[in-house]
Design brief:
With 253 residues, this protein is an alpha+beta fold. A 4-stranded mixed sheet has the order 4-5-1-10, covered by helices on one side. Strands 6-9-8-7 form a 4-stranded antiparallel sheet. A hairpin with a 2-residue loop joins strand 4 and strand 5 (121-127). It is globular. The protein has 5 helices and 10 strands. The protein has one domain: 4'-phosphopantetheinyl transferase domain (Ribosomal Protein L22, Chain A), CATH 3.90.470. Helix 1 (53-60) packs antiparallel against helix 2. It is 26% helix and 25% strand.
Length: 253
């Protein structure tokens, strides 16, 4: 399977979305002009050397170790990868928009990123335009029917009811809704019933086109990616263990 997947349309609804080929990190060229890069990392116990004091304090407030490890893995990976994409030794300052979406405040650089984690996995996505990503671990005991009337259109509910696996379809649609609203910067505050994700494209009120792409890391880990504009090439990279991850030296301006 090619590591660059076309996102013209979502996969046929009766089929499970593809599990992409994740490349060795050394194959990343760090160029985002016409591409989206998605990185995966397993939850792991690692050092917190790149975290800010505020991030360290936030991590310490997690009651469960696995929640703390997911947060630390995600933030450590994010800062490590941003130093490569920005090709800069300057201190990276992250801030949040009013909806909570983080962005690079300093140094100024045209990059958008998003992060999601669930269960064993952390996903990070990078592009030159706005984007959002979501991953969920399927809970076979989750009573998803309680959410349908409030968050899903009649067409989406009908599609679930016709499926041989309504729970899998629920997660398929939910990750797409969450990825899209994260790309907008509104998150789940948006009226999800009006967020149509059955097609591969979505037109927001300002007539911006948003492209949706779905994937599975495994049968119980569906994920979705949403980004501004028409379909781009998507490249997937396996980050592996952060403590052993290294890149050729890059010197910034």
């Amino acid at each position: 399977m090619n590591a660059s997947l076309s996102a013209n349309h979502p996969p046929p609804m009766q089929k499970i979305p593809a599990t992409p080929l994740f490349l060795n990190p050394g194959l990343c060229n760090w160029e985002l002009d016409q591409a989206v890069h998605v990185w995966r990392f397993p939850q792991q116990m690692i050092s917190i050397s790149l975290l800010t004091e505020d991030e360290k304090q936030f991590a310490a407030r997690f009651r469960l170790e696995e929640d703390r490890n997911r947060f630390i893995t995600g933030r450590q990976a994010l800062r490590l990868l941003l130093t490569q994409y920005l090709d800069s030794n300057r201190k990276i300052i992250l801030r949040s928009q009013s909806g909570g979406k983080p962005f690079v405040s300093e140094p100024p650089f045209p990059i958008s990123f998003n992060l999601s984690h669930s269960g064993h996995w952390i996903l990070l996505a990078f592009a030159s335009q706005e984007l959002g990503i979501d991953i969920e671990k399927i809970n076979p005991d989750f009573i998803f029917q309680d959410l349908l009337d409030e968050h899903f259109s009649e067409e989406e509910k009908s599609f679930m009811q016709r499926s041989s696996d309504p729970l899998a379809v629920f997660y398929y649609l939910w990750t797409r809704k969450e990825a899209l609203t994260k790309a907008w910067g509104t998150g789940l505050q948006e009226n999800l019933k009006k967020v149509d994700v059955l097609d591969g494209f979505h037109h927001q009120m300002n007539n911006q086109v948003w492209t949706l792409s779905s994937l599975f890391l495994s049968s119980d880990y569906p994920a979705a990616l949403a980004y501004a504009g028409l379909p781009k090439s998507i490249f997937y990279f396996d980050g592996g263990q952060l403590d052993s991850l290294s890149f050729p030296e890059r010197t910034g301006a």
